[in-house]
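Quick one:
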Amino acid sequence: MDAQAGYPSRWRLQLAVVASFATLFMLGVATSLLGPSLPGLAGRVRIALPQAGLFFTLLSLGSVVATLLVARWMDRPLRHALVTAGALLAGCALALVAASRTFAQAGAAVALMGLAMSTAGTAPNAIIADLYRQRAGQMLNALHLGSGAGSFVGPILIAASIRLGGGYAEAFRLAGALYLLVGLLWIFSRPPRPLGATGADKASGGPSPAALIPLFLFAALYLGTEQALGGWLFTYGRQSAALDASAASLLTALFWLSMVAGRLAAIGILGRVGNLVLLLGGVLLGAAGIVVLVLGSRFLPLLWLGTIVTGFGFGPLFPTTLALGAQLAPARAGAVSSLVVASGLIGVMVLPYASGGVMARVGVVESMASLVVPLVAMLFCLRRLGRPDKQVKSRVGN
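Output:
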């Protein structure tokens, strides 16, 4: 850990690191539960499957509201109380989703789930960036390995529930109980004081707000695409390749597992290349994977291969975007991280629902193919971010 003022006792600091990784793990679990559970949830609350894409919008709406509300506190000591309360509330919200029997109940519970998870899930990014300032890219990719691992576990929980004769509700209840345990970890931990609170790096400067717009737009396009693909991949496998429910759940799990592998590879790659090069490679690899996924509707092995390639390319994109924001504005790492997350969640509000609309109008294959469009737009964002990235590399030696 990089030396700085404001550290608490060592064991409570280490517990804060453990709690940060546990929080991102549970964020991945809870988020990835929603996609495979859509058919069962839609049937239980009596809505058509394409309309179930509204749950993604409601989840993101709650998340955006929470992220914007807590952004100003992410560079202040109050973030410890916020992450603790968010984890405990998330556990309760997951249990409410499991108990919901009408669209109004489920929609409110999902929105509360998004609000709680984002309240808990934003602070760990800033905490890790504060602790490991010179290695922010590598450590944030390591942190989001936890999120990817959780995203791999979520669909497996759904598949296991189906095999055991249950449904999505049991998986949501188990995830809720685990979230409550994460809240207990935060209660006994003590993160370091934020850089903004200690007065460190005030003279380091930073980009103008306009220079960060491409960063926020990139985050919106990426996270929206990730959740659209991850959320609808279960349905895509079922309808385009006639997979059964268990196999489609495993296909979704493979996507998230491949993202874990991509983040693991990025930890080593970032020691050799800068953020911009890694982001460019990830976008291009993800686009190639989506093309293979589309071809997988005609040849089943390509469906599995495309899932692996897309997930591997997508894996490092979001944590590396967070790292770039922290490096551009180190004294405002918490606020910038919050705005990156909020931007991504706005994308999640739009793209998964839009993808469901395309699916309803022209079919699942065309809906999957349309996800190449936001990736092309992300390339234009990277071109604009090239100049700030060079400035950051000259300042931090990355």
